[in-house]
Structure to design on (386 residues):
């Protein structure tokens, strides 16, 4: 009986942060840059979008956001966001689309005790243009399903806040997942992995 | 015997991401903006620094970094970093100091199942100037102790990479930790909390 209770406690603790602590079994080899990058993006649920803040002297302004590139296990590599102009990121992007989106493998739980800045704990920055997705397009439908399946509470967020779907059109990929500097990886290789 | 093994498994799982899953007991009231912000910064071990990337058309470039604002429980609110110009962030900052540093409460484990973009899961962005700390100053000594106590492996990172201590001189604080938009909080209130 005590064993069962402890086992239950274990399982609960494993998801106490609102997501599963992933095993590293599905982690691609660091040498396979395209698949590794797609794995890292599809396993992540949040990151930091940086935009240019005209109200702060043109400073680069990072902001925590949730995202999704597709239903679990079916991501296409393009990050979609659910943003309101009540938050500075969306309003900045409407003035200047230049932006980047940054993720750490540390947040998905497969770095073990390795430091988040150690190159073997992967990180990726996708640089590009942050754009509104036409709300009546089939892409918006895909993106909404992608977002709501990974972030169920989004569907109940206040209608009055006018959340809109945004996407990052990727121009450049910076990924470090091992020693020796960023992995060479084109946007085309990434999207077709 | 099985109980003991399961208990051990529980404890191991609780720290499997290289840090403790914090209890929320020490979490200040969201109304107490200054103490909340200082708590969030001092409990965190990594975040995203954004700088201006001149090699990417002036795009805002976010990068995952480790940091420390002091020894555990003794932070002063100023984030210190251990960076090498082999990484683009440090070299960008030497050309243009404008930058921001962004943290999510989600990464310290006290948001439960709340979505990372939900305003009750706190986030903070410190905007300012990213500057090298004079390696011979007492501030550098303080910062190195702060960094190495929270990131023990840093002291063994390759000397040939010429890691230097950087700090963020904070000009502006953006924090959301509840409904109703960003909390009013001056840099002076934050630093003297």
């Amino acid at each position: 009986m005590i064993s069962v209770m402890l086992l239950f406690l274990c399982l609960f603790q494993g998801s106490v942060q609102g997501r599963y602590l992933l095993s590293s079994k599905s982690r691609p080899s660091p040498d396979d840059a395209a698949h590794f990058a797609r794995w890292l993006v599809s396993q992540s649920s949040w990151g930091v979008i940086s935009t240019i803040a005209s109200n702060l002297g043109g400073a680069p302004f990072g902001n925590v956001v949730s995202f999704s590139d597709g239903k679990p296990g079916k991501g296409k590599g393009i990050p979609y966001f659910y943003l309101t102009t009540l938050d500075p990121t969306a309003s900045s992007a409407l003035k200047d689309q230049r932006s980047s989106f940054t993720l750490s493998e540390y947040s998905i739980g497969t770095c073990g005790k390795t430091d988040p800045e150690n190159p073997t704990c992967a990180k990726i920055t996708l640089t590009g243009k942050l754009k509104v997705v036409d709300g009546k397009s089939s892409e918006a439908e895909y993106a909404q399903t992608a977002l709501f399946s990974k972030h169920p509470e989004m569907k109940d967020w206040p209608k009055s806040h006018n959340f809109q779907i945004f996407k990052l059109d990727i121009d450049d990929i910076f990924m470090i997942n091992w020693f020796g500097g960023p992995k060479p990886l084109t946007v085309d290789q990434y999207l077709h992995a």
Observations:
- Chain B touches chain A through 63 residues (CB under 8 Å).
- The longest strand of chain B covers residues 164-176.
- The first helix of chain B runs from residue 2 to 14.
- Confidence is low (pLDDT under 50) at residues 1-23 of chain B.
